[in-house]
Fold this protein.
Amino acid sequence: MYKKRDTFLPYAIPLIDENDINEVVDTLKSGWVAKGPKTMEFEKRFAAYVGAKHAIAMNSATAALYIALIAAGIKPGDEVITTSMTFAATVNTIVHMGAIPVFVDIDPETGCIDADKIEEKITKKTKAIVPVHYTGHACDMDKIRTIAEKYNLFVSEDAAHAVETFYKGDLIGKKGDCACFSFYATKNICTGEGGMLTTNRDDIAEKARVMSLHGMSKAAWNRYGKSGSWRYDIEYPGFKYNMFDIQAALAKTQMNKLNEMQNRRKEIVSAYNDAFSKVDGVKIPVVRSYTTHSWHLYVLRLELDKLTIDRDRFIELMNEANIGISVHFIPVHLMSYYRNNYGFKEGDLPLTEKYFDSIVSLPLYPKMTNDDVADVIGTVTYIISNNHK
Ligand SMILES: Cc1ncc(COP(=O)(O)O)c(C=O)c1O
């Protein structure tokens, strides 16, 4: 049933409760608000949670993605293979290195990079692959790692959506060269802004730690503490990318309720799947057998050949009904910087472009009530059936 909501349903809002607030206040009162004990505790906890040897907390996934490429020793002119169906940060960080982004088209059902098409893009200059676990669906990592081993390529997984994504039974972040997570406001764990680089490689961890804190020698974060020393060295010209304790305070309470939040996401997804699998004109997300989805995003695909409206009109109609909606993502290769500087153009990645035209991301977050979910289902169903050929 269609009804215009009285209030606007935001596309995404974090679940911040009294425990989160109290933990942040506790940090403010403690006097240690920069990188300190809570950040260190979160690093240990996150490493243990995913099963990685090291976890280095940063102020964003973007920072982690950039630091990963630095730690891997990517040089200007190197080629880095990735997907265009991602947020710009994945590709901007490649450009910051002076490296050249090389896009591989997607699997049009999952939206992830098509692992079977990577090898044909490899040249002598290829040095790394940055696969994106798009929406929280894992990429086919066995295939990607096999290619990486064959050509000696570094793999930095963009795991911005992948807190709680499994690949063949393992959490993302446990295996491989490194993975970069996001704790941005809308993500499955929210620290406001925040990120984490996990790795099993001591060399990558050491470099990432140093580079994300000015390039200072390892123990310098604690130089104002009792056991710290005023003396430090600069080993590289690094960056100020570290997480700090106000963020880590939120991480602690968010981790405590991660299971609960995931269960709510799954309930909403199953309500959406039940409803939309019966609606002619849309396709529900496809989940391959090798992954457990984190359900960071719920991307519905419109079957445009069956409809009298396009995706943009669909969004307008949802907004008119007071429901926030989004699109993940506008392909990066079609952004003006990438067109102007690399000569990318429409037609370069036909499956990515076709997919983009058909997708909408529906509201999906633990704070949604059953009425909110019913409103989304009712409105989508109404719009699709009323604009069917
Ligand atoms: C696929 C992807 N990669 C990277 C990022 C960057 O994450 P952050 O905002 O933590 O820097 C995002 C952010 O939404 C993303 O969606």
In short: The radius of gyration is 21 Å.
